Amino acid sequence: MRRALAPLLALMLLALPLAAQQPPPALPSPALPSEQIVAGLSRDDVDITTSFDGSEIIIYGAIKRESRIPQGEPLDVIVVVEGPSQALTVRHKERRLGIWINTGRVSIGSAPSFYVVASTRPLHLILTPEEDQRYRVSIPLAMRAFAGPMEVEDAVPYTEALIRLRRAADLYRQDDGAVRLAEQTLFRADVRLPANLIEGYYSTRIFLLRDGKVIDTFRAPIEVRKVGLERWLYRLALGQPFIYGIMSLAIAVAAGWGASAAFRLVKRS
Asked: Shortest CA distance to 216 belongs to which of 40, 41, 74, 63?
């Protein structure tokens, strides 16, 4: 039966158009920008210990180009460091009849736990609103869509309050002029990390701009993790909260007994 069908299949293949028998042509690769970012980080991980009081990361790099520096507006660089995002709810409280009660709330689908924008010049001078919307660079655009049905008429005051609180906690910053650019070729940004960081993977984005438009981007990850006793206590509290509570209570009792004994000893002497 197979021998009888083999000549028929061969004739069918010969009858196909020549184009159908050839592999599809390869798509042309996108053209590389005339100016590209070559960058690095002083460190790609941060360890949180019991004595952690903040850290600093140096982000540096150069502009790679095959021709002379173009004429016109000077080059600008924006560096964004973003922490893990979380869903959260912002509530508004009002005092009525002497009691503080919730009068409205807005659920935000995703907001970064840490967000810093550093740039060579003020952000509104070097980045067009269209490019800001496209790459979500500025702090208000770092928050993602609202979650669930809206219970208030205007959500803007809620997001502004969240940004204000996180700015006060040093978790959101816009550092205009913090990126130093030399001869439109070499750049450097010193990004300060506060002590109240959370564990997770942080992302670093670098934007190269000319005439208000992004011409190249660069990304690199940063891992922030708890180590040593801090990590052990964190895992114990999450994984075995009962044992963690008993251990905390025992330490508190022992510390109180030790302080009382030391006080009596000092009093007798």
From this structure: 63
Number of Cβ within 10 Å of residue 141's Cβ equals 13
> Is residue 240 helix, strand or coil?
coil
Highest mean pLDDT among 65-74, 136-145, 185-194: 185-194
67: helix, strand or coil:
coil
**pTM of the full structure:** 0.74
Show the tokens assigned to 102.
Answer: 């919730």
Q: Mean of the pLDDT values across residues 117-121? A: 95
The angle that helices 241-268 and 228-239 make with each other, rounded to 10 degrees, is 120
CA distance 119 to 48: 27
Number of other residues whose CB lies within 10 A of the CB of residue 153: 6
Residue type, 219: R
What is the Cα–Cα distance from 96 to 27, expressed in whole angstroms?
Answer: 66
H and E: helices and strands count for the chain: 8, 12
Alpha helix (H) residue ranges in the chain: 2-15, 18-21, 123-126, 129-135, 139-142, 156-168, 228-239, 241-268
Question: How far, in whole angstroms, is CA 142 from its chain's centroid?
Answer: 9
Alpha carbon distance 200, 193 (integer Å): 14
- The percent of residues above 90 in pLDDT, for the chain, comes to 40
244 burial (CB, 10 Å; 0-12 / 13-18 / 19+) is middle
